[in-house]
Design goal:
By secondary structure, this protein is mainly beta. Helices cover about 10% and strands about 35% of the residues. The chain has a single domain (about 30-170), classed as Alpha-Beta Complex (Nucleoside Triphosphate Pyrophosphohydrolase). Strands 1, 2, 4, 5, 6, 7 and 9 form a seven-stranded mixed sheet that branches. The relative contact order is 0.26.
Length: about 180
């Protein structure tokens, strides 16, 4: 088991966007690193649908790829703000998750952090500047049973009574459509 790592961001200011790096499989020489936020607010978990045009019904925690030269918490603050309009405080890491698409040569490693909302509300009119996230909403633990989401361990990371303490690892799995 990995040791628990305690870390709390000092402020709630969204990080400045840095230049983007190539994310295409042909450019991959190592896995893509991404960050995701576990935001439990009023007993509901914030998830996003990151499939333009509603191509999939799969939901995931908000977040995305990291930019070099910027800390993981700063990247997470930027990504969550881009996708949801929310300003967050980043807490301790909770999960390292990885998935891949062997046919495309894609491999992603994600670090999930606990986070809390400092400012903002979910606005249906909010537009992700990259156009990737098309929907964002809060799901209760019961509502999660009626949707597809990844990774499967999400409920066990956020709700009291099911929450596992410390930093966890979800083994490599194939990407799902």
């Amino acid at each position: 088991m990995l040791p628990q790592i305690a870390m709390v961001a000092a402020n709630c200011t969204p990080a400045m966007d840095k230049s983007r790096f190539c994310r295409q499989p042909a450019c991959m020489t190592s896995p893509r690193l991404a960050v995701r936020a576990l935001i439990l607010h009023e007993d509901a978990l914030l998830l996003v649908n990151a499939y333009p045009g509603g191509k999939s019904d799969l939901w995931c925690a908000p977040g995305g790829g990291v930019n070099r030269g910027t800390s993981l918490p700063e990247n997470l603050q930027r990504e969550v703000h881009e996708e949801t309009g929310l300003t967050i405080a980043v807490g301790a890491p909770a999960l390292i998750n990885e998935f891949h698409d062997p046919l495309r040569g894609f491999h992603q490693v994600e670090v999930f952090f606990h986070a809390t909302i400092c400012a903002g509300v979910i606005d249906p009119a909010w537009k992700d500047p990259a156009g990737v996230v098309t929907d964002r909403r809060f799901f209760t633990q019961a509502a999660l049973q009626g949707i597809r989401f990844k990774p499967d361990s999400l409920p066990h990371l956020v709700w009291p009574g099911t929450c596992r303490a410390g930093l966890h690892y979800d083994p490599l799995e194939r990407i799902v459509p």
